Amino acid sequence: MSLASPCSPRGLVLAVSGEMALEPVEPLRLALAEAADEGDRTVVVDLSAVVCADAAIINALLRTRLSLGSRLRTAAPSWPVLRLAQILGVDHAFALHAGLQEALRDGPAPEGGVSSSAA
User: Fold this and answer.
1) Residue 102's closest CA among 38, 27, 48, 53?
2) pLDDT per residue over 16-72, tens digit each?
3) Which end of the chain is more exposed for a tag (fewer CB within 10 A), N or C?
4) Distance between CA atoms of 43 and 46, rounded to whole angstroms?
5) Shortest CA distance to 54 belongs to which of 18, 9, 30?
6) Inter-residue contact 32 to 43 (CB < 8 Å)
7) Which pLDDT score, from 0 to 100, does residue 9 have?
8) What pLDDT is stored for residue 5 in this prediction?
9) What is the reported pLDDT for 117?
10) Any idea what the Cα angle at residue 17 is, between residues 72 and 26, rounded to 5°?
């Protein structure tokens, strides 16, 4: 797993890539916890380059959503992440956006729904 944290004037972007299973999720979990403690900016998790995922990544996002609320957004979830979220029934728990720019620009998805910019 690889995790990059590019800064944006509109919020923090955590770009995740590679395989996301139980142990590799820990750096993401720590980065999300730190972001939640750093004020009120938007936190976007770019999931476009995740090639394999298990419930650990969904768990990390759900836990972080408790502290970030609508400030947590996901950008371009890859097929493995999107499918896993659908199977677990949590695909509507996050603000899903088609891409990074949309996630930074659009704001949170409607409650219980997917952003109109999501694919």
Assistant:
1) 48
2) 998 887 778 888 999 999 888 887 888 999 999 999 999 999 999 999 999 898 889
3) C
4) 10
5) 18
6) yes
7) 62
8) 63
9) 43
10) 65
CB atoms within 10 A of CB 22: 11
Q: Are 80 and 107 in contact (CB under 8 A)?
A: no
Q: What is the dihedral of CA 69, 75, 81, 83, to 10 degrees?
A: 90
The radius of gyration of the chain from alpha carbons, rounded to an integer in Å, stands at 12
Identify the DSSP state of 109: P
21 in Cβ contact with 56 (< 8 Å) = yes
pTM assigned to the model: 0.81
Given a cut of 80, whether residue 77 has pLDDT beyond it is yes
Residue with tokens 């088609």: 98
Neighbours of 30 (CB within 10 A): 12
